[in-house]
Amino acid sequence: MRALAARAGFADALIVNTCAVTGEAEAQARQAIRRAAREQPGRPILVTGCASQIAPGKWAGLPGVVRVIGNGQKLDPAAWSAEVAPILRETPIGIAAGGATRAFLAVQQGCDHACTFCIIPQGRGPARAMPIAEAVSAVRDLATRHAEVVLTGVDLASHPELAALIRAVLREVPELARLRLSSLDPAALDEAFWALFAEEERLMPQLHLSAQHGHDLILKRMRRRHSRADLVQLSARARALRPDVALGADLIAGFPTETEEHLCAMIDLVAEAQLAFLHVFPYSARAGTPAARMPQLPMPLRRERAARLRQAGEAERSRFLASRIGQVEEVLMEAEGMGHTRHFVPVRLSSAPRGALRRARITASDGRMLIAEEAA
């Protein structure tokens, strides 16, 4: 997008890629735009992303904004140079991006589900999948510059050939050191996936689950397709196949009608399923979704419950990190003295260059990251 903007004469423009997952995400983007317009008057601002796809007029009226570009045109040169850029409904598949060490490849876009809290299908359109051959070709190209590739998607596990795609990538791109997956719907992980997870060493031992809650009644009201028992069984299965697996989850606190009992069930789930890496969100009502019409909890209560949930996650994270002390880990260095393990745990390791893969012995944990020294 930066290159397309520069080619269209917007080399100095600020590009804001908006998110519509929560009201807070939209508010932060609006604040950033207003601040930029105030601090750098005259600098053109270009807005794209899910929030602008859903309500383009709202973003076009902000100070400094000269162009609103729909998700479906992010990679279309004409959208950056045309006087009026029409808003399309579909985000392209195959967007690839990355820094010096890790790249991200979107092999799936859109969503066909109807979770009551979510507005993302309006911003990303229906589910579409990248063909296996295209994914292999894209990963092969990325592997010439990156040691690790992350396969991503709005609903990655809905890719109809996900397991076959992963196997093809690992078979056809042997030079790729590490393959990682983004967030996965627990209800969509089939037998082919679990066989793959057990057998493929270069598929990282880390799963991040789109769990959302830990009580069956709230999961039903969210219109999720899994139960609490499914999440517990999934975590047990993952550990049976790869005992050192790191599990994480997206969780929402303060969903409409949630009681203290419901919250405690979710907190208990964090420990029972050993969910060590949480993304916790206070529920955010999105206009046009069924959940926005349900009885709402006060925002201070939602935030208080989210804080308690994060505390439970921090305890599990500390426990997992402590379990790695004394282990020899493979660390991908991403900055001076810093890198990530195969479990995507941050590690402090001195005297290793950026982009290098290093064997390191874990010597300590500060509860948030690991400290290591190079191993022979």
TrEMBL record:
SUPFAM superfamilies the UniProt entry points to: Radical SAM enzymes
CDD domains (alphabetical): Radical_SAM (cd01335)
The keyword Cell inner membrane is annotated on this UniProt entry: no
Alphabetically ordered keywords of this record: 4Fe-4S, Iron, Iron-sulfur, Metal-binding, S-adenosyl-L-methionine, Transferase
UniProt key word DNA damage: no
Origin: domain of life: Bacteria
Entry-linked SMART domains: Elp3
PROSITE patterns, per database record: MTTASE_N (PS51449), MTTASE_RADICAL (PS01278), RADICAL_SAM (PS51918)
Domain Radical SAM core: 97-319
Protein name, entry field: Radical SAM protein
Sequence ranges assigned to domain MTTase N-terminal in this UniProt record: 1-85
InterPro entries tied to this protein: Elp3/MiaA/NifB-like_rSAM, Methylthiotransferase_CS, Methylthiotransferase_N, Methylthiotransferase_N_sf, rSAM, rSAM_horseshoe, rSAM_sf
Annotated Gene3D superfamilies: Methylthiotransferase, N-terminal domain, tm_1862 like domain
UniProt source species: Roseococcus pinisoli
Cofactor: [4Fe-4S] cluster
